[in-house]
């Protein structure tokens, strides 16, 4: 059998056909690689004077892993469930009693504790009469705490009358942390944060707050009720916001 060499024109035609056939595969691979890289890189937080985001996280997964190192520490969990249990409930009870006296919390309130770990603050709410209370944390602790990421709360809009948190410093994205609180609060609902202003937080903190001013900027749909000094397990300031009611034009 004779073999006839391809002419130059036929060779070019075959070459371009192969190139066209391989183009969709090339575009798919390029798009997949770009998407994977983007997903592994957290978007930058909004720059706010007086609020510093700590560096060092290559991805959101690395941030979550770092937080779980503390939450899942067996020694700490034993301390939280035994030695610290009654002491923290007693202190939280005093905080919540004060809020009830101020008319910011009532027995009929539906309450959420954000970043509740073992649930001492949830138990304290129940003991002061706020029976419809629950907490969220990366690691659930039934029946008081369900699984949840405070950057993406697993609740519908307007689900709660009252939200409490003492883990603002653990938020990698403070604007998402606050945005989720405002989303799940009902109009007129109250949010209470315990934060550290005079001292820096521990190695698991993801941000450093220098004053109350950044919080006032972050709570876009709420008004500041008051600020007071407290002694709350290393946190020195209580900041209270109330979500604004929607006013309809006549």
What does this entry look like structurally?
InterPro entries: Methyltransf_11 (IPR013216), SAM-dependent_MTases_sf (IPR029063). GO terms for molecular function: S-adenosylmethionine-dependent methyltransferase activity. With 250 residues, the protein is α/β, with parallel strands linked by helices. It is 39% helix and 22% strand. The chain is built from seven helices and nine strands, in the order αβαααβαβββαββαββ. It has helices at residues 8-40, 60-71, 74-81, 83-101, 120-127, 174-184, 213-218, and strands at 51-53, 111-114, 133-137, 145-147, 160-165, 185-195, 207-209, 222-232, 235-243. The strands form two sheets. A seven-stranded mixed sheet has the order 4-3-2-5-6-9-8. Strands 1-7 form a two-stranded antiparallel sheet. α4 (83-101) packs across α5 (120-127). The radius of gyration is 26 Å and the shape is globular. Mean pLDDT is 85; it is low at 19-42.
The run of helices and strands is HEHHHEHEEEHEEHEE
Largest sheet properties: 7 strands, mixed
Spatial gap, N to C terminus: 93 Å
The level of helicity is: 25-40%
Which structural class matches the secondary elements?
Answer: alpha/beta
Strand content: 15-25%
Poorly predicted regions: 19-42
- Strand order, main sheet: write it out: 4-3-2-5-6-9-8
Identify the overall geometry: globular
Overall pLDDT, averaged?
85
Number of helices: 7
Number-wise, the strands total 9
Compute the gyration radius: what is it? 26 Å
Organism: Sesamum radiatum
GO molecular function: S-adenosylmethionine-dependent methyltransferase activity
Pfam families: Methyltransf_11
Domain Methyltransferase type: 112-193
